Amino acid sequence: MAAETVSKGFGLGRPGSRGSLGVIWSVFRARIKIITRYKGAVLLESIIPVVFAGLPILLGSAVAGSEQAAAANFFSYTGTTCPSALPSDCATLFRLYMLMGSNTFMIVSLMLWLIGYWVRREQETGTLEALYLAPAKRLYILAGVTSYTLVRSLLAFVTATVLGSIVFQVNPLSGLFGAAIAYLVLGIPALWGISFFFGALVMRIKEANSVIQLLQWVLAFAMGVYFPVTVFPLLLRWTAMAFPPTLMNDAIRSTLLGITSIYGPWYVVLGLMLMAAWTVPLLGYQFFGLVERRVRRDQGVGQF
Amino acid sequence: MPAPIIKVEDLSKTFLSKERKKGAGRKKKPVHALKAVNLDVKDGEVFGLLGPNGAGKTTLIKILTTLLLPTSGTAWVNGYNITKEEDEVRASIGCMLMGDRGLYWKLTGRENLDYFGALYHVPKADRTKKIEELIALLKLGDFIDRTVETYSSGQRMIVAFAKSLVNDAPILFLDEPTVTMDVPTARELRRIVREMNDAGKTILYTTHLMHEAEELCDRVAIIDHGEIIALGTPEELKQSLGHEDVVSLEGIFPESTVVRLRAVPGIREVAVTAGDSGRSKLDVMVENSRAMLPRIIEAVTGNGATIEQIKPKEITLEDVFVAKTGRTLAVDTRVVGEKAVSGRGG
Ligand SMILES: Nc1ncnc2c1ncn2[C@@H]1O[C@H](COP(=O)(O)OP(=O)(O)O)[C@@H](O)[C@H]1O
Ligand SMILES: [Mg+2]
């Protein structure tokens, strides 16, 4: 009995790929279980971008007198050419532009904020400390969490797109839908990278709400949810353009709407996207490790 | 002699925390939570870390469990270095560090155990079996399949304890595990800790309750203000007081009583524990209680004091602490400065 009870501890040797996959899966499954036990959260989340897209459409129409006039103003002011000669087509594109902008914005913000809230929540409940007590590698735990944020954001994206298409009477399947989705997928690793930065920030300053509230606006502004960032003054414009979500947003919209990207021809856009997809996650992960080490040196991860 | 399973070498930890006092500006104030601590824990023993609140027990445990990096010095757990082989250290230990915290409230107890089992790379089949074992051992059956949010704090505590056993590690770190438990549950937990130890696990157990340390531990280190001030088996520690006796007085005593007592030749140390409604308890350490009793009574009376009870006491680990520090274990030393110092007199 005794010899059997005193094992040398499980996983003292390096865990095999099964063990590591087991970590990812367990973390992912736990997150999904937890969120589904908060009723209605996912549905509510999906309605937000529809409202978000509705605002500028209504506002634009109100200021310009009619939606078609609003669309015409929009295209001429922002320097994006409406690819159609028909004003009613342009109005539809205008709506689709807003809808896709706010949907993409929602994916980006959900993926960032969910990580932020995750870190903060785990800090408060003491489970972050419990995670650090376990031998599972940070990489696999983060992989589990980001799989969850991805699934949750994509679900919300799909719901919002379907809802929005009905409400605004636009067809997102027109144009190069497949290519736009490809850009969406290609943009995700960079979002992971940024979410690592953000998670680390929350871990360090032990606050999520106020940071999220502030960054929400910065993000919406920089990403050009309602307008191409070309309307910014030069310096601001370059800063905004260097921000991966702006690139992703523009790539998706320009492809879907058949308008020219502010970044240039498609191969430039693709090249930039590929570059962001592998550099940003690496940088973000490094940064997370760095902050984590600092926290462990100062107060410990359990301090909240 | 076999190599120690936990070896601590000159371990120090200094926290820098911001002073938020008026006029203090934004200066960072250092708190020396651990001062060059050296320790060896032998394979298979229950090692107790006894000290008042704020002594540095949790800090030491956090460093040994890789949650916190030391300012200087180092340590080995199960032969692995705590800063260079973190994952191996983590895989070697089971921990219960923050009472009933560290569980997911929206998951059931069973789901929590399964989740943490996976994080310790316990294969699914072993995990399921182990969890069943723990449910039987700790009598969790009634509530294990409810979400943790519905638990009483005692139930959360016991599940947190189960969590520390789920990876079946050879070393257990328990940081004041009984602190919010009722008496019978605490007794039951200590019984199980003993059982785990009989089965071969090494246990590092911290507490500020001398009776726990005395009852449970093979060896005890008494820690105060970040320093180990005594170390040995409970027997050895008590014998180190030599021929000293303790006389315990209960009643209402004016402040000058302590000063007067200390001035009496033959009285080694006086410790005060405040009770309710002006009552307090004085532990007076003397060389020979029989001979000294009249003189103690003389020093206390005629001073407005009311003695309600007076009795010679058997020496406990608490008295060892009193002899070394002039304070009782009940004093909170987290408040550095005035309060801790005044704890000496009352
Ligand atoms: N994160 C921290 N920042 C600043 N001081 C701390 C921190 N954690 C603990 N301390 C201080 O270190 C000392 C030891 O604390 P701790 O190890 O928690 O004591 P114990 O567990 O024995 O009650 C105390 O004075 C405490 O105030
Ligand atoms: Mg403590």
The helix/strand series of chain A, from N terminus to C terminus, equals: HHHHHHHHHHHH
Kindly report the greatest chain-chain contact and the residue count on each side.
A-B, 45 and 47 residues
Strand order of the largest sheet of chain B: 6-7-8-3-9-10
CATH architecture assignment name of the largest domain in chain B:
3-Layer(aba) Sandwich
Helix count from the secondary structure assignment of chain B? 12
List keywords for this structure.
heterodimer, A: 304 residues, mainly alpha, 12 helices, 0% strand, elongated, disordered N terminus, B: 346 residues, alpha/beta, Rossmann fold, Alpha-Beta Plaits, 6-stranded mixed sheet, 4-stranded antiparallel sheet, 14 strands, 34% helix, binds adenosine-5'-diphosphate, binds magnesium ion
Short overview:
The complex is a heterodimer of chains A (304) and B (346). Chain A is mainly α and 304 residues long.
Give a structural overview.
The complex is a heterodimer of chains A (304) and B (346). Chain A has 304 residues and is mainly α. Chain A has one domain. The longest helix of chain A has 39 residues. By secondary structure, chain B is an alpha/beta fold. Chain B has 2 domains: 233 residues, Rossmann fold, CATH 3.40.50.300; 73 residues, Alpha-Beta Plaits (2-Layer Sandwich), CATH 3.30.70. Chain B is 34% helix and 28% strand. Chain B has 12 helices and 14 strands. In chain B, the strands form 3 sheets. In chain B, strands 6-7-8-3-9-10 form a 6-stranded mixed sheet, with helices on both faces. In chain B, strands 2-1-4-5 form a 4-stranded antiparallel sheet. Chain B has a 4-stranded antiparallel sheet with strand order 12-13-11-14, with helices on both faces. Chain B is globular. Chains A and B meet through helix 1, helix 2, helix 6 and helix 12 of A and helix 2 and helix 3 of B. The structure holds adenosine-5'-diphosphate and magnesium ion (MG).
